[in-house]
Amino acid sequence: xxxxxxxxxxxxxxxxxxxxxxxxxxxxxxxxxxxxxxxxxxxxxxxxxxxxxxxxxxxxxxxxxxxxxxxxxxxxxxxxxxxxxxxxxxxxxxxxxxxxxxxxxxxxxxxxxxxxxxxxxxxxxxxxxxxxxxxxxxxxxxxxxxxxxxxxxxxxxxxxxxxxxxxxxxxxxxxxxxxxxxxxxxxxxxxxxxxxxxxxxx
Amino acid sequence: xxxxxxxxxxxxxxxxxxxxxxxxxxxxxxxxxxxxxxxxxxxxxxxxxxxxxxxxxxxxxxxxxxxxxxxxxxxxxxxxxxxxxxxxxxxxxxxxxxxxxxxxxxxxxxxxxxxxxxxxxxxxxxxxxxxxxxxxxxxxxxxxxxxxxxxxxxxxxxxxxxxxxxxxxxxxxxxxxxxxxxxxxxxxxxxxxxxxxxxxxxxxxxxxxxxxxxxxxxxxxxxxxxxxxxxxxxxxxxxxxxxxxxxxxxxxxxxxxxxxxxxxxxxxxxxxxxxxxxxxxxxxxxxxxxxxxxxxxx
Lengths: 202, 298
Prior knowledge:
Radius of gyration of chain A: 15 Å
Oligomer: heterodimer
Largest interface: A-B, 46 and 39 residues
Helix content of chain B: 40-55%
Order of helices and strands of chain B: EHEHEHHEHEEHEHHHEHEHHH
Structural class of chain B: alpha/beta
Number of strands of chain A: 12
C-alpha cells in the first residue's frame, strides 16, 4: 500500500499534508531515518533550502534520503524541494548539500527577491488546463540532463525560457507551489507516479 | 519578470512566503558578520536592525529603521530572506525598506511608534508585512490592514519568556472559544474582538489564524523555543537571546534544532548542553509600564 511521507524538518509541511490527504492517501511526517523507513514515497516541501539541508545533515537523514532516491522510490519536491533533488545548484551556499537524483542545475532565488514573487497561469505538458503557479523566491532550471523530461517552462521578459517543472524517472520537481492552491492535479500526478513504481520499503 | 499574466504582491504570494518560514527560526542581526552566523546556524531568515531590543532598552532614545547601508550589506551577505523593522505607522520607512528589496517588513512595537492612531495600510505594498499581537482581536485588526504574518509580541529584550507564553496562550485561547459558536454568536464575538466579522468567521472555521503565527519576545534558550512551538507557534523569532549570550554560534544552532524537534525532550537536552551563559534577563514585574513594548500598537 502507498504511504507518502512529507519531509517535516522545516517549511510548508501542513499544505502538502493537506493536499495529499484530500486525495485519500496515507500520509506520514518524516523527521528522522526511522520515520523514512515507514514510507514508500516522499514529498519535500517548500521552505528554506539551506535550513532543510543543514537539518537533514544534523539528524543523519541526508544519506538515507540519497539511498531512498537510489532505491527508486518516488519523490516530489516543490521549490526548496526542487533544490534538494538537483544534482547541482547555483547561488547556493558553498557547503550546501543536496540529495540529488535529478540531473539538473538549479539557480536559487532565480526570479529575484520577495517583491518579485508572483503567481501566473502556466501551461503544463500533458495537463489539459493551465495551472495557477505560485512562485516564491523561486529557483529555475538552467541545465537539464538527457534523462530529464521538461513538463513546464517559464519565459522571462527577455525571452529566456527556463524549465520550472521536470521529471526524471520516479523523481518530480516544481519551482512553484501547487500546495498553496486548491488545485490538486500535480499531487494527483505524483501519487499516480508513486503507485506505478509502487515498491515496499524494507 | 513582468509577464502579461503575472501578479506580484497578491495575498497568496505574501502569505505563502510566510508559510515557507514555518518550523524555522528568524534571528535578529545588527551586521553582516552576525547575519552570516545566523545563516550558518540554519536560520530561515534574518531580521536586520541597528540595535537588538536589549540594547534599545538599555540605551533608551528613539529607535528607528536601520541604516540602508547596513541593510544592503546584509542582503549582499546572505542568501536567506532578509527582514527589517519599520516604526508603527511610519509609511515612509516602509516604502524605503521595500525599495531596498527586503523580503518582509516587521511593523514593530520594538521601535518607537511614529503614529499613535494608525498602523500602516499594508495592502498598498508589494512587500509582505509581519505585525505583533497580544490577543486575537489585535491579530485580526493587523490582518485586515494587510499583515501577511503575525507574531505574538512577548516582551522583547528581556530574555524572559513569560509574556510570549501569555500572548500565545491568549491568542490560542481566543481562537478556541470561537469554535462551536453559531453564526449569531460570531457577530457579537466580532464586535467584542473589535475585528471584521469575515475574519472572525474564517478563524472559527479554520481553528487557527488565516496567516502564519510565529512567536517573539523573550525567547533565550532552546527549551524556550520548543515550549513556544508546543504552545502552537508556527516558528520563532529570536532577538537579543542569541547575540547577547556567551556563545552565539552554538546557541543559534541549538535553537534551530530545538525548534524542529520541539516535542523530543532528548534532542532539547542534547542541544542544551555546553551553551555557556544565556542572556541575563529581566523580570517583567519590575519593568515600569512606560518601558514595556507590548503595549504599543492597538
